[in-house]
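Students often ask why inverse folding is considered easier than folding. One informal answer: many sequences map to the same fold, so there is more than one right answer. In these notes we will look at a single instance of the problem. The structure comes first.
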């Protein structure tokens, strides 16, 4: 077992992908390989200890993750620092979850809460969509609901949430999954008139066809609040 070391710690980023120190290989997308040191990785995670010490693995398949995300993840384990960016957040966050790197999961959470904290009534739809979908991914794939709880609370606090998020998100709501419709019901619970107006527009554009999604919404919306 790896000696007790408090992480994060700067092990020297120059030692990553080093011929001398690298005794394990991580296979990335596109056929690229990265060499790393099993001891350094094991300091951060009991999962790595299990893989390297107990299972005696020296090659890890990482093709399920974006290559740049894996590099960012490994760089953080070696340097103790990370600069998170939106387009890599999902995979870096998932890597932290899969390999149980608690300190780096905390950095991902801090980054995400910072983005949510910056949301206001002037935030653009694409930013809200990014936060919402990342939170849904965390809930659905990682079984971690705190991201979604945070985003829902923030969106529900916006007076213009229907205009800046709900309406564009539901533009083609017949294509949404039931779980997505449930979240829209939750966001508009205090004023379901939002949903009824969107459904009315949809019915008009669909020539009055009452699809399954419309039926589901109507069955689950609190019509008493529309009176």
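Output (designed amino acids):
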């Amino acid at each position: 077992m790896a000696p007790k070391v408090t992480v994060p710690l700067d092990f020297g980023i120059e030692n990553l992908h080093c011929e001398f120190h690298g005794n394990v290989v991580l296979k990335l997308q596109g056929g690229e390989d990265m060499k790393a040191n099993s001891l350094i990785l094991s300091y951060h995670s009991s999962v790595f200890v299990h893989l390297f010490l107990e299972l005696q693995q020296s090659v890890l398949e990482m093709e399920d993750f974006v290559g740049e995300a894996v590099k960012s993840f490994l760089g953080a384990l070696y340097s103790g620092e990370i600069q998170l960016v939106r387009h890599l957040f999902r995979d870096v966050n998932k890597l932290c979850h899969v390999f149980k790197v608690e300190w780096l999961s905390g950095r991902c959470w801090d980054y995400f809460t910072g983005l949510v904290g910056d949301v206001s009534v002037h935030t653009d739809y694409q930013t809200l969509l990014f936060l919402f979908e990342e939170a849904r991914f965390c809930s659905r794939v990682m079984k971690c609901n705190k991201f979604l709880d945070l985003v829902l609370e923030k969106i529900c606090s916006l007076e213009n949430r229907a205009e800046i998020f709900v309406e564009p998100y539901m533009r083609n709501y017949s294509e949404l999954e039931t779980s997505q419709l449930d979240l829209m019901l939750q966001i508009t619970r205090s004023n379901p008139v939002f949903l009824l107006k969107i459904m009315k527009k949809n019915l008009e554009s669909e020539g009055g066809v009452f699809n399954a999604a419309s039926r589901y919404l109507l069955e689950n919306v609190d019509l008493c609040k529309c009176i």
